[in-house]
Design brief:
This protein has 273 residues and is an all-alpha fold. The chain is built from 13 helices and no strands. The chain has a single domain, classed as Orthogonal Bundle (MetI-like fold).
Length: 273
């Protein structure tokens, strides 16, 4: 019985792995196809005549490097600021402090997670317009600099830090900002790394909000650039697939280099079952 359960578990994992890997492999293979192969009958999974023309056209004929740079600037700025401010706010509302209204403020802040983005989009757009930030990268970066999920995640982590560490620092006369920088942040590094991954991926894949606040072609992100590659009457599918492959590379690299932090954070953040 136990052996059958083990085999069933392995088969389930294989099916789930294939569900993730097969679309990626198909996307990569399709980027090497010629345009006419997409309409050939019968359909071929692998390119009959592999070609890098789509990649050459993508790099040489379009400002793809500029789109890449815009996405990198936005994703890095949003990720770093979100992790720092979420950790700082999580420290302020953690069990390390006691003051009137702390729990109420945290509960209200946490309740914002229930609000769909479409509900706050118009007020947010009006704010960006009032600040003169429309059609700038700042309009995309500023709303993502702090989030309720990050605050909740970091608060749960900081709650588990022994109070003795902070009390020892206070006895030595260390100010609160020093305690935050020298004790809280180093002890929260694994969970901060996981939050960095979540935020980076979300910012990198963001489409709707950049579409609303960015009008200039030179400020487009990769997600907008890929969407604009689809024409009204015809679409160069090999070009779109090549763009999708190149857009996926940073995400894969981030996951590859942060996997150990991500796994470790699941045992430290209180998210385990």
């Amino acid at each position: 019985m136990r052996r059958a359960a083990g085999i069933l578990r392995i088969l389930l994992l294989i099916v789930l792995a294939l569900a993730v890997v097969v679309p990626i492999l198909w996307m990569a293979a399709s980027s090497l196809k010629r345009h006419t192969e997409f309409f050939a009958q019968p359909t071929h999974w692998l390119p009959q005549m592999p070609s890098l023309d789509a990649y050459r056209k993508l790099i040489l004929a379009q400002p793809f490097s500029l789109y890449y740079l815009n996405s990198i600037i936005i994703a890095v700025a949003v990720s770093l600021s979100n992790v720092f401010f979420s950790t700082l706010t999580g420290f302020a509302v953690s069990n390390k402090y006691t003051y009137a209204g702390k729990n109420a403020a945290f509960s209200f802040f946490l309740a914002t997670m229930l609000l769909p983005f479409e509900l706050i989009m118009i007020p947010l757009y009006i704010m960006m317009r009032a600040l003169g930030l429309l059609n700038t990268l700042g309009a995309v970066i500023i709303p993502g600099m702090l989030g309720a999920f990050g605050v909740f995640l970091m608060r749960q982590t900081i709650n588990d830090i022994p109070n003795d560490f902070l009390d020892a620092g206070r006895i030595d006369g260390a100010p609160e900002i020093t305690l935050f920088l020298r004790i809280v942040m180093p002890l929260s590094t694994p969970v901060m790394a996981a939050l960095l991954v979540f935020t980076f991926v979300g910012s990198w894949n963001s489409y709707f909000w950049p579409l609303v606040v960015i009008n200039s072609e030179r400020l487009r992100t990769l997600t907008l650039a890929v969407a604009y590659m689809a024409g009204f009457y015809s679409t160069d599918y090999s070009l779109v697939m090549a763009a999708a492959v190149m857009s996926s590379v940073p995400i894969m690299l981030v996951f590859a280099f942060s996997q150990r932090f991500f796994i470790r954070s699941m045992t430290l953040s209180g998210l385990k079952g």
